[in-house]
User: Which sequence fits this backbone?
C-alpha cells in the first residue's frame, strides 16, 4: 500500500528484481491469509516467475479471482490446511492455524538447514473466534521448547496496552448499533471481510 504522503497513488509493488534474477532457486510462494497486503502483488510476481502457490482454500479462492483479472488462470494453486507439511527445496514448512480478522489464516514453522524459523504472520489472540477454530498455541510453544533459530512475529497494535476485542464482540456491537438505527445503514468494509 502507498504511504500517507504518496497522494494519488493507488498501489505500490515491491521490487521483484532479486527474485527475478534468482527465479531458478524459487520453489514456490506460500500465502498465509487472504488480506490484500499479503496477496496483492502476487499477479505481478507471477507474470515474471512461474511457481506454484500454496495457501488455504479461502486464501486461494480470493487469489484465484485476482489472478483471473490478470489473465493468470493457469497458475498452479495448491491447497493446504493446518498441520500439513510441504517440502520446498531444503525447507520443510508446517502450516499452523492462527486466529485473525480473516478466517483460514496460518502461521509457518519452517525447518531450514540452520534451524527452525517460526513465522506467526498476522494473528489475533481471540479466545472466541467467529468460526470457533482456535489458534494452535501449543504448536508455537512446542517450537519454542525444541529451540527456534528465528521468530518472525507481526506486531500490529503491540504498542497499545490492553487487548483487542474478539471478532464476535465486534459483531455483537454492530448488531446493537444496527438494531437501534433509524433509517438507512451504509457500511464500508475491507474487501476480504467475510465475518459480517
Assistant:
Amino acid at each position: 500500500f502507498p504511504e500517507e504522503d504518496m497522494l494519488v497513488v493507488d498501489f505500490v509493488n515491491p521490487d521483484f528484481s532479486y527474485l527475478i534474477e534468482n527465479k531458478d532457486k524459487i520453489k514456490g510462494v506460500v500465502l498465509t491469509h487472504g488480506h490484500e497486503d499479503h496477496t496483492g502483488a502476487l499477479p505481478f510476481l507471477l507474470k515474471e516467475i512461474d511457481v506454484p502457490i500454496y495457501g488455504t482454500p479461502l486464501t486461494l479462492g480470493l487469489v484465484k479471482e485476482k489472478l483471473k483479472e490478470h489473465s493468470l488462470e493457469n497458475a498452479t494453486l495448491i491447497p493446504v490446511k493446518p498441520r500439513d507439511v510441504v517440502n520446498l527445496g531444503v525447507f520443510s514448512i508446517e502450516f499452523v492455524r492462527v486466529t485473525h480478522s480473516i478466517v483460514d489464516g496460518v502461521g509457518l514453522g519452517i525447518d531450514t538447514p540452520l534451524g527452525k524459523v517460526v513465522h506467526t504472520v498476522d494473528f489475533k489472540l481471540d479466545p472466541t473466534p467467529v468460526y470457533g477454530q482456535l489458534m494452535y498455541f501449543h504448536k508455537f510453544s512446542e517450537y519454542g521448547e525444541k529451540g527456534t533459530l528465528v521468530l518472525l512475529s507481526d506486531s500490529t497494535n503491540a504498542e497499545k496496552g490492553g487487548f483487542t476485542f474478539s471478532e464476535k464482540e465486534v459483531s455483537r456491537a454492530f448488531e446493537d448499533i444496527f438494531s437501534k438505527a433509524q433509517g438507512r445503514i451504509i457500511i464500508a468494509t475491507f474487501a476480504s471481510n467475510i465475518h459480517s
